[in-house]
Amino acid sequence: MANKKQTKKPENQKVNPLMIGAVAVAAIALSLVLFAPKGDKNSNTGAANTTETTVSANKSETDGTANTSEAAASTDSNAKKAVLNDNGDVVINVADITENATFYEYDSNGTTMGLFAVKASDGTIRTALNTCQVCNGSPYAYFEQQGDSFQCQNCGNQFSLDMIGQERGGCNPVPITADDETANDTEIVIPAKFLKDNAEKFTNWKKF
Fold first, then answer.
1. CA distance linking residue 115 with residue 121, whole number of Å
2. What is the rounded distance in angstroms from the CA atom of residue 127 to the CA atom of residue 22?
């Protein structure tokens, strides 16, 4: 009788518990990476946007301030050529004068002179020669308006708009008083003789 072949049943393979643990940890880690909330990133982006907006706002405010200062400043860099009547006198149109000074240039026998007109807080028109009573020998003895004051570019002294044309002495702009000019509701006339008598103050004016 033939021997029956005995078939050896395979033994169940043992599963390594360490391997299972490693796979589980890896799966958890992958889940955290894939499904982690993105709130922090958005939060940071929002903070960055807020900061950027704040910086932009501050820049706008600064630019606005700079523009305001610039609008308030008035210089003679765009001085107008003085209009003359038949006698050679300077004629200023009252309607053209505001709180921002209007600067003029006048030629007195080859000497360039500067003068300006501005409306004071009481509504009157003030006129002056655009040079300092003390510094007039200097090329920098001219004035620039900064808001409601005028500053000598040589000595740095500042004078209120309402002082223009009122005071003599010191570093004030050389005043053109009511005795030096004639005025009515439409125009102010500054005589050529008055300008000629003061031309020597402008010998070195702006000759840098």
1. 20
2. 94
